[in-house]
Amino acid sequence: MPGNSFGQLFRITTCGESHGGAIAVIVDGCPPGLALSESDIQSELDRRRPGQSALTTLRAEKDTIHILSGVYSGVTTGTSILLLAYNEDARSQDYNKLKKVFRPSHADFTYLKKYGIRDWRGSGRASARETLARVAAGAIAQKYLKEKLDVSFTAYVEQVGGIRAAVNHERVTRAHIDASMVRCPDKTVAKKMIRLIEKVKGEKDSIGGVITGVIKNVPIGLGEPVFDKLPADLGKAMLSINAVKGFEIGSGFAGIELKGSQHNDEFIKGKKGGMRTKTNNAGGVLGGISNGETICFRVAFKPVATIGKKQHTVTVQGASTALEAAGRHDPCVVPRAVPIVDGMAALVIMDHYLRHKAQNK
Amino acid sequence: MPGNSFGQLFRITTCGESHGGAIAVIVDGCPPGLALSESDIQSELDRRRPGQSALTTLRAEKDTIHILSGVYSGVTTGTSILLLAYNEDARSQDYNKLKKVFRPSHADFTYLKKYGIRDWRGSGRASARETLARVAAGAIAQKYLKEKLDVSFTAYVEQVGGIRAAVNHERVTRAHIDASMVRCPDKTVAKKMIRLIEKVKGEKDSIGGVITGVIKNVPIGLGEPVFDKLPADLGKAMLSINAVKGFEIGSGFAGIELKGSQHNDEFIKGKKGGMRTKTNNAGGVLGGISNGETICFRVAFKPVATIGKKQHTVTVQGASTALEAAGRHDPCVVPRAVPIVDGMAALVIMDHYLRHKAQNK
Amino acid sequence: MPGNSFGQLFRITTCGESHGGAIAVIVDGCPPGLALSESDIQSELDRRRPGQSALTTLRAEKDTIHILSGVYSGVTTGTSILLLAYNEDARSQDYNKLKKVFRPSHADFTYLKKYGIRDWRGSGRASARETLARVAAGAIAQKYLKEKLDVSFTAYVEQVGGIRAAVNHERVTRAHIDASMVRCPDKTVAKKMIRLIEKVKGEKDSIGGVITGVIKNVPIGLGEPVFDKLPADLGKAMLSINAVKGFEIGSGFAGIELKGSQHNDEFIKGKKGGMRTKTNNAGGVLGGISNGETICFRVAFKPVATIGKKQHTVTVQGASTALEAAGRHDPCVVPRAVPIVDGMAALVIMDHYLRHKAQNK
Amino acid sequence: MPGNSFGQLFRITTCGESHGGAIAVIVDGCPPGLALSESDIQSELDRRRPGQSALTTLRAEKDTIHILSGVYSGVTTGTSILLLAYNEDARSQDYNKLKKVFRPSHADFTYLKKYGIRDWRGSGRASARETLARVAAGAIAQKYLKEKLDVSFTAYVEQVGGIRAAVNHERVTRAHIDASMVRCPDKTVAKKMIRLIEKVKGEKDSIGGVITGVIKNVPIGLGEPVFDKLPADLGKAMLSINAVKGFEIGSGFAGIELKGSQHNDEFIKGKKGGMRTKTNNAGGVLGGISNGETICFRVAFKPVATIGKKQHTVTVQGASTALEAAGRHDPCVVPRAVPIVDGMAALVIMDHYLRHKAQNK
């Protein structure tokens, strides 16, 4: 299969460049009978929207979503759903001077080498605008999972540059997260993060960050041995997002320094006759299958490649040149990437819920 | 699709429990005309084999591989290849007392909850013995890629517990890696790692580690926008391996503290008219597509869950109990996991090579 | 995977109901560098368009196609292509009285039972309007295959009701086929077919027919053992078209009465040192793989289910009732189905060409 | 995906040549908790076995099946199941003289051209021996569907050469079918068929036939719009079987001569408050989805290509030559193909049952 689809049973297929006609996604496999309107999707898109705060790009796209199929009388019919947002405010002229230059750490070079052609306006298909489709489709999954199983997705910004928050994710809600424009639920740390981002922005530079993904109330049993373990599919989902360079679940990289006797999560009796684990170094999965504990993972985003600062590079013909980006870009991607992490996580859980339901009782 | 297949065009499907009849894999999509014999595969399996050194489990499985289809007159025919290793030395009685108990941080609990039944002998399908199939299939991919494109895979142990080696992976060869039984190419650090593992073993405990994956000479252009980016598929491959809790590529989690101006890899003129990057924070990929630089990534393995030390847990009925594992297990999984990382990486590169070849010239 | 996608490497995903916002298709996996404009696609859509002749429904949809992604500067970029046609002239009120009734031999009943909900306006997703997306995507495949390999697709109407043409398909061109509004290249028989269709239309009834598919210049070697044989994928493609009840390739059902000595196609020396077969009972495939001869197959279309004649049926609640359809429908589907057969055939050949290219030299 | 897998959720992957080590299949996605032993599978394999009657090849393969994974304590565990039969009685020397010759209407030519290499012993992967894997996997599906939903599969031989039986398939049982060695439930016609096959055998020739597939008690709602309609997937399943040249469902090719008013199946009230159709020209599907009526379809098998009669052909180098096959072959394939049709039909229904269950209540 080509690479523009994700998921097995709740399957999305996306298309669109930043300066083409539209960004769109077909969602196939949605259960019938789910109440669904544009506003259900728009609310998630607005969390991703450019221009939403002083921390983001000034591009003023409204990203209005249209449902063009698969919903009748306000309810999903079980057939494929088309979600589409037309492109607006696409100032292609901003990119004219990039036509002949390979921007450092951008996909310009690899797209041209791979395909022999590239749409150089605003990164074409490699633009982060592509993630709009992920968020839109993920909103459907989130709605279904909330209504059907009370599953919730509460990703938040844990780190910007060297500034890291210590948050008890069990108590964090969407309201806490969205209360700050940097989407860190620790108010004090959030202010420090904002100051750092503003400083970096003033320097025409950019900075990286970490988003922690949190999924509560996942039913026991999701995840498929042996290749489609839940961490494998969550990891793929996250590592397919622009600018992501790392993923870890539960104890992650920190766990390697522990001994088994320290790291193992003891089983204990839970409420209502169930079983729980005393600790959650596993991050909510055992043998790749959800164990009923909160799923938590961390996603590393590199600093945005596009910066206003002068950089050395080469032209398409290989001549040395210098570059100062003039486009309107985010100094730090993580505040706007929070809904992308939630959306992709929801797509994974939704897909695995249907896969589990197919094979098991 | 169920979860026992991996890859799109070079596609493997695996089966087998640790105490069933056999571990096997069907490799579908292999190009015809590749010279292939059991010894090509056995050499990689011997790197994964239990009992190969004092650091590993004492189980003495020979893991002899049989090619039962898809090869004729010593050459692949283009049809599906069956690789099979019969199970030997399976002391099921070692596991008798585990029948009624959930081992901490094991898949016992989630398999039983998911399927309503489990093969409790030696972890059944969740056994790391399953990775034998990955290594066997990966050996075919490694052979093809070496002969056709001179691609090499040189994963090594970078860290055990808190002991970390600083290695220039560009210079490391298989010979350097396999020279030490811990598979760390830095001889001095390797000795420290061995001492740590022996110490942990003596304590009936276990310890985690990091394997660095290194892939050289990957052609430019591999990886598919937008979901099947090369890091996404490499990440999924690694996160599907037993005990893996984290994956990062290039600068990974460390990169988040850098600014864009520090992190970006400048393009420079390379030898023979090509282009290179001055640094390789990207880890060999741009926009999810290989850029011709060495691909490097790190994989975090948690400490092995099975330990001889006494642990608290619950029975299948939920009663509190204690457990001291009697089976024969590795105190640290990373030395034997090196060929698994190489094998899975080769499966990803092989698959993406064929995918690229299909769409492009 | 859900059912709205077709193909492995040249993969289409479709959506849209007859009375929703639009019919659309995402084409993923198209090779880069193909010159492509709306007019390349529109010309095929016009062959399928309602209202094109006196033999078809009077609905006057123009079915104007829009390319919204994947093409830049008139050339495919290798990324996913969105083709979209907005719905027009959708007189939903024509269908009001169908809301409570199951139309005989329609999908009303099964959609409602499967999903618990249905879009009853114009058959919803089960409408033949869905095939617009197949023709649009197929036009891209046809253009690529013509330019790259000189493969041609010349399906034609061979039979309407009991009237059957005897045509040498080796000599038939698109011009011959489109010369008659019934798309039968035998002018005399075409006239008879037209008279029959007009007669049936006057009776407020409908009639079935056969389309013969013809594919010339297919390279040797397309088709994958053992499940994805070329006839299996062509058969699936055709049997997925609305109203199709049968498929046969080469000698088909007639061949069962022959002996092997009569049916076998002898190999002979061809021109330019190649090999040919003296006869072509195989229909261009051996062992499921193209052998270089013309691929020919026949597709049976049942009479259109929607007729103006009074029929007995039941309401959604199960009460007996009678029905006289008032919508605007085709008395015979085959003239407009010719481009659908061509389109689906092109999707299959294109997909198998890329699959073959991936694995083989 | 390469072509050796079939099905989406109940997915089989097969391998093996007629003269290699084994024929095997991995069945992935089987629900857990199904009682399963080798004898459940062997009984279906024995219906396909060579040498079972005077009408079949004399090869005396026992085709003993081994379950090597996925079953524990006599019950499926939900993990992948390996079924394997070792090859026996493989007289490769029978094929020595075929090494340099292209047999008419065989896959020799296309395999060599496609892959540049072929296993010429007994047709290699193109051998009908491959269907053993289909029957074995299908036996699991049949067992599950019978126990869970009382679905039954009763394919039978309807036609051999010009001799055709008129059978009311609603009343036919497996016992009726297997009572005659030609597997036609009409005893009188069966005798005529046997005489015809014996005559053809005496002439060192072969003859074609038709198998009618019958599936009873299929739940309403199976089949996925728009490409994975039930007839499309059944058609693909059948057209992927060796020697099949045609497939039709319900009225099939005969229906094209009917008018809509004759062909439409009126809805009527059924027993227990349900709805039925008065006739079943649809063959049990509406809009590609099962409607609760018996599914019936017909499959055309060409005469076996391998005959003892002298035939003209060419050598691999293109020189004219003559050929008299010495191997041990069936004069008519349909008696032994009945369990293959049942098996493939069961795989399709099983897969669609799981797919339906995933998306719907």
Could you explain the architecture of this structure?
The structure is a homotetramer of 361-residue chains. Chain A has 361 residues and is an alpha+beta fold. Chain A has one domain: Chorismate synthase AroC (Chorismate synthase, AroC fold, 4-Layer Sandwich), CATH 3.60.150.10. Chain A is built from 8 helices and 19 strands. Chain A has helices at residues 38-48, 108-115, 131-149, 174-178, 187-202, 230-239, 260-263, 334-359; strands spanning 5-6, 11-15, 22-28, 66-69, 71-72, 75-76, 81-86, 152-153, 156-160, 163-164, 209-216, 244-249, 267-269, 275-277, 285-286, 289-290, 295-301, 311-314, 320-323. In chain A, strands 8, 9, 10, 11, 12 and 17 form a 6-stranded antiparallel beta sheet that branches. In chain A, strands 1-2-3-7-4 form a 5-stranded antiparallel beta sheet, with helices on one face. Chain A is globular and about 65 Å long. Chain A starts with a strand and ends with a helix. The mean pLDDT of chain A is 94. The interface between A and D is medium-sized, with 15 and 15 residues.
